[in-house]
């Protein structure tokens, strides 16, 4: 085995494997240069969202979208639609809704909102050059079925619905996945009561096709696995979640959405006057500025900041709690000649002393097999290498009381895990126009489409769209 740092947190005939159908990408970049008519009948551009892509050009013509390197073959996204610097060359950009953060939750939410409100203008702001490169691109790739969560809880409902929506979406869009199943294996007699309790919990959560198997059943499903009893969840699967996230972005673009990369938000505030030369008065009272001084005006703001959700909320005057404390997870990678040892996901029975699922075997879409993760305090919020360090991130973590051995996690002021969704608004004039997603707990990738539905409902209840 060898170590693979990854960041914060099939027996024949048994599993379903979707066909790998990439086809020609029809999602050419849409040109959203809105024009304002002048009295002389002429027009001038009001928004700049990157250079146009002419009819008939291949996807590779969109130089800011798809690259030809090996990253593209894994679903890589090269640079987004338009950098903040490019956008600054045009007139002041104005939109109805701005979404900050292009991880899988932000992308799914942007997609859901624009599909519900096609007549409105939307922009997605991302601080990196590429999309979904942090938690959305550094995970085990499991499609969870919803076994572990308290029956009737929001997490349970979102996970079960999210898994169904995810499989349907992958089928519709031709995204490869494998429904390879999962065994939760008890190896000691003392684990049996906890395993049976998990089974009852899974049934109450309406997890599909869940069953209990004995030692013989374990060997039939995983010939090299040994245990005395296990839960068999054939509905559990694997997928490249970053590829899914990037397809959400394509849907958003095709519906008319704009994407600005390299736009690291430093300020969200109300403004006293309309953009220079704008005939629309104070229709766009919110200004979002990045650290380089670029500005976007909008009517409403939704932030899905992930590892930076607490700092984005503080920008608009909100409480610093819940605070994000980063933990890095590392995996071992099984040698290629040993891949035959593992067919599906193999998990231990969770230990109630620890708030995570335990070290497990996970097959990958590229044919590899991972074993992990551990969980160690990260010295940087985006620290995927052992010695990555950021003084502010490290000081924030050390100055905040909380448990150890946990993946990237939101904690309240007493150091308790925040295991539910947390929404927050701005303060003062921003209160009715800003919505922060402070915490979208695991499994956020599996639940992303269901989470997006809930976030869109919350946006509609708070804002007058």
TrEMBL record:
Keywords: FAD, Flavoprotein, Oxidoreductase. Its cofactor is FAD. GO terms for molecular function: (S)-2-hydroxyglutarate dehydrogenase activity. The keyword Oxidoreductase applies. Its EC number is 1.1.99.2. Residues 1-28 are annotated as: Disordered. It catalyses: (S)-2-hydroxyglutarate + A = 2-oxoglutarate + AH2. Residues 96-457 form the FAD dependent oxidoreductase domain. Belongs to the L2HGDH family. NCBIfam families: PRK11728.1. PANTHER family: L-2-HYDROXYGLUTARATE DEHYDROGENASE, MITOCHONDRIAL (PTHR43104:SF2). This is L-2-hydroxyglutarate dehydrogenase, mitochondrial. It comes from Fundulus heteroclitus (Killifish).
């Amino acid at each position: 085995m060898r170590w693979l740092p990854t960041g914060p947190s099939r027996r024949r005939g048994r599993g379903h494997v979707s066909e790998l159908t990439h086809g020609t990408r029809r999602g050419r970049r849409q040109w959203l240069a809105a024009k304002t008519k002048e009295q002389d009948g002429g027009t001038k551009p009001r928004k700049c969202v990157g250079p146009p892509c002419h009819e008939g050009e291949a996807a590779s013509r969109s130089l800011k979208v798809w690259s030809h390197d090996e990253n593209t073959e894994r679903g890589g996204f090269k640079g987004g639609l338009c950098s903040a610097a490019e956008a600054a060359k045009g007139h002041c950009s104005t939109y109805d809704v701005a979404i900050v953060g292009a991880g899988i939750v932000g992308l799914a939410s942007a997609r859901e909102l624009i599909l519900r409100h096609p007549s409105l203008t939307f922009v997605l702001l991302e601080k990196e050059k590429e999309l979904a490169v942090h938690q959305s691109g550094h995970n085990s790739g499991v499609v969870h079925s919803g076994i572990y969560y308290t029956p009737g809880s929001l997490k349970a409902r979102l996970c079960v619905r999210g898994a169904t929506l995810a499989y349907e979406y992958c089928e519709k869009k031709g995204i490869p996945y494998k429904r390879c199943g999962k065994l939760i294996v008890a190896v000691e007699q003392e684990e049996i009561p906890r395993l049976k309790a998990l089974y009852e919990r899974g049934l109450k959560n309406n997890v599909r096709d869940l069953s209990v198997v004995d030692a013989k059943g374990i060997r039939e499903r995983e010939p090299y696995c040994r245990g005395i009893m296990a839960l068999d969840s054939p509905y559990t699967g694997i997928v490249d979640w970053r590829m899914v996230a990037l397809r959400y972005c394509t849907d958003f673009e095709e519906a008319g959405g704009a994407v600005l990369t390299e736009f690291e938000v430093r300020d969200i505030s109300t403004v006293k006057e309309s953009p220079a030369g704008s005939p629309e008065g104070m229709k766009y009272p919110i200004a979002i500025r990045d650290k380089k001084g670029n500005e976007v005006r909008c009517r409403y703001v939704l932030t899905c900041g992930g590892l930076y959700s607490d700092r984005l909320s503080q920008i608009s005057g909100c409480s610093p709690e819940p605070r994000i404390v980063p933990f890095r997870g590392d995996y071992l990678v099984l040698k290629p000649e040993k891949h035959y040892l593992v067919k599906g996901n193999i998990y231990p029975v969770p230990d109630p002393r620890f708030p995570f699922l335990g070290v497990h075997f996970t097959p990958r879409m590229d044919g590899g097999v991972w074993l992990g993760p551990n969980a160690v305090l990260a010295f940087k919020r985006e620290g995927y290498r052992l010695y990555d360090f950021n003084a502010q991130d490290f000081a924030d973590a050390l100055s905040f009381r909380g448990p150890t051995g946990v993946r990237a996690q939101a904690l309240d002021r007493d150091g308790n895990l925040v295991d539910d969704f947390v929404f927050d608004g701005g303060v003062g004039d921003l209160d009715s126009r800003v919505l922060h997603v402070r915490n979208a707990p695991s499994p956020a990738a599996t639940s992303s489409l269901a989470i997006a539905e809930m976030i869109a409902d919350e946006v509609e209840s708070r804002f007058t769209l």
